[in-house]
């Protein structure tokens, strides 16, 4: 009897060990199928500058875009979803070249227009220009791409940084009509003015919770240092009352809010932003230790979000939300609704 008990105990023990090993192997296999969205993807990318015609120079393009563009795309043959990315206030689209190439390397065509060179507080013209660019995509984008690279205009995302985030939300809220439908909206540290009650026209925030009537998934990315002053002479670059917290509070489901704790408003830009404007990007806003981790995080979380809501592949986004995937920055608690 004692021998039987010993053999039975040994069998049960062996079964538990084997089951645990099998579960570990299954978990490892599932993890290994996830893409490292925070690293450069498998596609080689091409960065393309497109100018429009002027009053003195006629464009040679069959259907020129309404505004100059910076396009990042895969070089390999295929059909790719599109992301329109809007720059921040008084910034150049070229300052986002490393970010958009990161996104493009995961199989997306990224369109970054230069909406203006100089602008006042009113962003109405930027909203109209973005609508015009969106309407142009189905008519003119294919003329700019080689025949083996096909844009899928039915899988379209819209993103904006800083004031560009406000413009993106305004367009998604149908403040200007578009012929194409967006399926995903991303606000990257969006800003709607100087303070609550000091919004720039046209105001987007209503301060009514969940009031944004958006027929699409939304992701808001914020920065912990955006609301902190760089020095006493300048206001914070993403002030409380008009920043990412307020935009997310007005979102309906499905929506997610990611906040990089120790990084600033401009830390997603290229490592080297040239010229006078490029130099000021290091002086005006409170920054983190370096730009590379924040830029990798923004690029990766945008890829994960676009994969989920444009391509139906949510494994990376779920892994990030559940803390099962290592991210390049420390995040505040992630909040998702829906």
TrEMBL record:
Catalytically driven reaction(s)? a chlorophyll + H2O = a chlorophyllide + phytol + H(+)
- Superkingdom of the organism of origin: Eukaryota
| Signal peptide (residue range) | 1-23
Q: Which InterPro entries match?
A: AB_hydrolase_fold (IPR029058), Chlorophyllase (IPR048264), Chlorophyllase-like (IPR017395)
Q: What is its main location?
A: cytoplasm
| Annotated Gene Ontology cellular component terms | cytosol
Database matches in Pfam families: Chlorophyllase (PF07224)
Write out the annotated subcellular location. Cytoplasm, Cytosol
Recorded metabolic or biological pathway in which this protein acts = Porphyrin-containing compound metabolism; chlorophyll degradation
The identity of this protein, by name, is: chlorophyllase
Q: What organism is the protein native to?
A: Lithocarpus litseifolius
The taxonomic lineage of its organism, from the top, reads: Eukaryota, Viridiplantae, Streptophyta, Embryophyta, Tracheophyta
* Family indicated by similarity: Belongs to the AB hydrolase superfamily. Lipase family.
């Amino acid at each position: 009897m004692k021998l039987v008990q010993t053999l039975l105990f040994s069998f049960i023990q062996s079964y538990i060990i084997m089951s645990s090993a099998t579960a570990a192997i299954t978990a490892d296999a599932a993890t290994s199928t996830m893409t490292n969205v925070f690293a450069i993807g498998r596609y080689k990318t091409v960065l393309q500058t497109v100018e429009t015609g002027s009053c003195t120079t006629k464009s040679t393009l069959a259907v020129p875009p309404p505004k100059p563009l910076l396009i990042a795309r895969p070089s390999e043959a295929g059909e790719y979803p599109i992301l329109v990315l809007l720059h921040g206030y008084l910034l150049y689209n070229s300052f986002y070249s490393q970010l958009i190439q990161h996104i493009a390397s995961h199989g997306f065509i990224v369109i970054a227009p230069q909406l203006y060179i100089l602008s006042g507080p009113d962003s109405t013209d930027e909203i109209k220009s973005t609508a015009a660019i969106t309407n142009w995509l189905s008519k003119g984008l294919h003329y700019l791409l080689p025949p083996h690279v096909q844009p899928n205009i039915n899988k379209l995302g819209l993103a904006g940084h800083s004031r560009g985030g406000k413009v993106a939300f305004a367009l998604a809220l149908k403040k200007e009509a578009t012929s194409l439908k967006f399926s995903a909206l991303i606000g990257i540290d969006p800003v709607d003015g100087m303070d609550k009650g000091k919004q720039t026209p046209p105001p987007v925030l209503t301060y009514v919770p969940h009031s944004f009537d958006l027929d699409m998934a939304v992701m808001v990315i914020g920065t912990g240092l955006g609301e902190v002053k760089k020095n006493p002479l300048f206001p914070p670059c993403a002030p409380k009352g008009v920043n990412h917290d307020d935009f997310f509070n007005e979102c309906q489901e499905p929506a997610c809010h990611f906040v990089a704790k120790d990084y600033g408003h401009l830390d997603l830009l290229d490592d080297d932003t040239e010229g006078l404007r490029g130099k000021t990007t290091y002086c005006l806003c409170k920054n983190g230790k370096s730009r590379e981790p924040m830029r990798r995080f923004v690029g990766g979380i945008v890829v994960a979000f676009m994969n989920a809501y444009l391509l139906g592949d949510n494994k990376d986004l779920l892994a990030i939300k559940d803390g099962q995937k290592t991210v390049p920055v420390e995040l505040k608690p992630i909040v998702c609704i829906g």
